[in-house]
Amino acid sequence: MYKYVLRRLLLAVPVLVLSSLIVFGLMRVMPGDALTALMAESGNIGDKELKKLRKDLGLDRPYHEQYLLWVWQMVSFNPGDSIFTNEPIPVALRKAIPVTLELATLAIILGLVIAIPVGVLSATRQDSTSDYVGRVVAVSGLSLPDFWLGTLVITFAAIWFQWIPPIGYASLWESPWRNLQQFLLPAAVLGFRLSAATMRMTRSTVLEVLREDYVRTAWAKGLAGRLVVYKHALKNALIPVVTIVGGQLGTLLAGTVVVETIFALPGMGRLTVEAILFRDYPVVQTNVMLVAATLVTLNLVVDLTYAWLDPRIRYR
Amino acid sequence: MAATDPRPASRRTPLTRRDFVKRTAVGGAAALAVGASRGRALAAASPHPDWIAASAKPPKRGGVLTRASAWDPPVIDPRLTQSVGLFQFVGLTSNRLVRYPFSDEASGPSDLSLKGDLAESWTASPDQRVWTFKLRQGVKWQNVAPLNGREFVAADVKYCFEQYAKEGVQAFTFQEIEGIETPDKHTARIHLKTPNSLFAQNVAEPVAVLFSKEVLEEDGDLKKRLIGTGPYIMKEHTRKVRVVLQRNPDYWDKGRPYVDEYVILSTPDAATRLAAFRTGQSDILWVASPSEADVIRKTNPNSLVQAYHNTLAPFGVALAQDRPPFNDVRVRRAISMAIDRQKMVDTVFEGHGILGWGVPYIYYQDTPPTAKDLGPWWQYKPAEAKKLLAEAGHPNGFETTLFYYEYFPQMTSQVQLVQQDLKKNLNITVKITKLDYTSYYGRYVEGKWDGMSWGFQSGHAIGLDERTYMYMHSKSTKNFFRVNDPVIDELTTKLRRTPDRAEQRAVAKKIVDREYDQVLRMWMPYDNGFMMFQPHMRNVASGALRRTDGYGSPTIARAWMEK
């Protein structure tokens, strides 16, 4: 097991190096830089002054030097400051990460709370009304883009209930009730999408497992229906579901970009999008690397979960 | 079965695919027809007033004013940005030497008379090169360390303007200053390198706010603290969350401001801002179209609405007029005549928009220009346009490019309408490229592009000098439309040497006439929009050149809430 984990961690290194090269390259290929965005707006900055500022920020150095300098900053856990706002990147991240983490966690919880029971219900009552309703809801979740659903939710909440989540982020520790109001709707929007695929997968795998011999044996022994479904069938049906959930975490993080914008939450998504728009190289690069590292870790965790779900699985 | 079926008749017959397609087509056509006639109807008259008079009641103190805002300040150093994100509130924390009137003292939206802000009076020498500002006495910096309520004096003006000239985006304006004398504590005498009768207007701009020496010297920049002499003290600035401004109890204009706290909530999504207004979380909202205003009035019937009328269009088709084929005036005129601007106003802006002109009309005439006022080359005459293009040597049209950034969703429709008109009327094939903000800005401002761009003039300054000399003189760094016309150079320079208001109007008119005749900047229609306020808001009307939000936010200093 330890060897397996170590091997996976070592394999993560080339993935991260490749990610760093891609994000570094893409940012340099995009036209304009942070100074263009910040200073050129007035048309008052002369070429001379722009050149001086670029030099001060190291933007005039050869690309390989810029890359190596950045890699060094990353491995020494000092990603530097934002070019656009001058705020140290760790400070910006300390503010943004908890927001996205809370949003993503709530979305996953809400998504699973909806998806697994509905998936099981759909499977155990195949082709009944509840099955059809569940499938229609799942297809809707897959078809409706987050930006559309989010806009719809906030607009109709305002019209029908004269209420929307309070704008102006408050942390969980500062004001738990306000924080909950702010996160419930966005998490539901994200969770709905997540629940759709998970529900479909739960339904099909539970259906498959329910037809297995050992489940038939359980029925034949006279075990209660709930016990057969939840203890014998569901646990064995969960491996593909976990795989699907793990695979959707990337989509979930991408979804936070839109949802954070609609619900005015100052998370990683907004931080990254703004940084891309203003060519804030260090911020974009750091954020992308952070997301890449998170996804690599989460995939490893997902793989390790298989052994817990199915003790027959061994890692070598 | 049909006789006993309780369902409505419309639901009894199964809908075939053919029926569905037919009904959709008929419905769509009907909706389009209704939409078009609605646009024309709205064009005829807006049910909302264009000015909200100041309240006759005595102002009431207190309350928290909240506004969901699209903008977030990138930095809070006024030397380093002209972002609306910053200038939506800097006019409240800080003052300028002179200012434009507040809505409770303006005679109407077009009142541009200058009022004293930190200066009580100001005069120019006969040659318009020396400007003397007599400062208001007893003004104190906000009672926040390191200023701690120190007196504001003429040396502060000297220091601040010298710093502006030294570096940053405001430098162009302040570099015209040759030197500043401070003969006494309350007098600043500014010597200009060249005559400029419009200098007072330039220092009335929101971007000319006065900042303190102490903060800049202690911190090395103004990125962390913003301390001014203004009616509000910046209590909090959390990026992408909120800006909180608290009433300055020691403000020199005694009794003001009226509102205790002004909170600006960073809300990038338009639908969320609208929902925030609907639910009372935001007191002020800007919407672009009449239909949006009507929809909101359905849920918020008591909200106050001001129909805004733009005095200028910030966007137009910029041509690479320093090279072929656009260096030929006939080509520019032909293109201008081939574009149906009225159709754009009717369809894209639902009739509530302007045809497009670049210099605010209030500087040279009393009423908005009609299509006729804009001259022959701005009329939609496709046949004449084709003839003119043929005379210029392009009977079969040509191919060109156009790049743009979508500042607002309607812009894409505008760009496509121009593309269609030019293809249909002149056989000019326009290849459109949509860019992100930074790519667009960098490329546009650099000014080395070919073909066309959807050009802009920035909205940070509203003075006549800014809109003429700074944007059109061939030597100006803000001449983004690449105007290089000796007549314009001469006239814009002359305008700077003309102190008399009536003469200024005459020269300004000559400038715009020349601009229209030579099609130096091909302005495009622009929306008018509506300012919406919660019913308890008072003294918040937008002026002709400044809305209550954005750069016009100093208005809030005189606003109050009746609740």
Q: Sum up the overall morphology of chain A in one term.
A: globular
Radius of gyration of chain A: 24 Å
| Residues in helix, % of chain B | 25-40%
The largest pleated sheet of chain B is described as: 5 strands, mixed
Strand-pairing-aware structural class of chain B: alpha+beta
Assembly status: heterodimer
The SSE order of chain A reads HHHHHHHHHHHH
- N/C terminus separation of chain A: 6 Å
Please indicate the percent range of residues of chain B in DSSP E strands (runs of 2 or more).
15-25%
What general outline of chain B do the C-alpha atoms trace?
Answer: globular
| Beta-strand content of chain A | under 5%
Mean pLDDT of chain A: 87
* Number of DSSP-assigned strands of chain A: 0
| Annotation field: number of helices of chain A | 12
Tell me the strand order in the biggest sheet of chain B: 16-15-17-13-18
Helix content of chain A: over 70%
Fold and architecture overview:
The complex is a heterodimer of chains A (316) and B (563). With 316 residues, chain A is an all-alpha fold. In chain A, 77% of the residues lie in helices and 0% in strands. The longest helix of chain A has 38 residues, at 225-262. Chain B is an alpha+beta fold and 563 residues long. In chain B, 32% of the residues lie in helices and 18% in strands. In chain B, the strands form 7 sheets. A 5-stranded mixed beta sheet of chain B has the order 16-15-17-13-18, with helices on one face. In chain B, a hairpin with a 3-residue loop joins strand 8 and strand 9 (242-247). In chain B, helix 11 packs antiparallel against helix 13 (382-391), helix 16 (464-472) packs antiparallel against helix 17 (486-496) and helix 17 (486-496) packs antiparallel against helix 18 (501-518). At the A-B interface, helix 2, helix 7 and helix 11 of A face helix 6, strand 10, helix 9 and helix 15 of B.
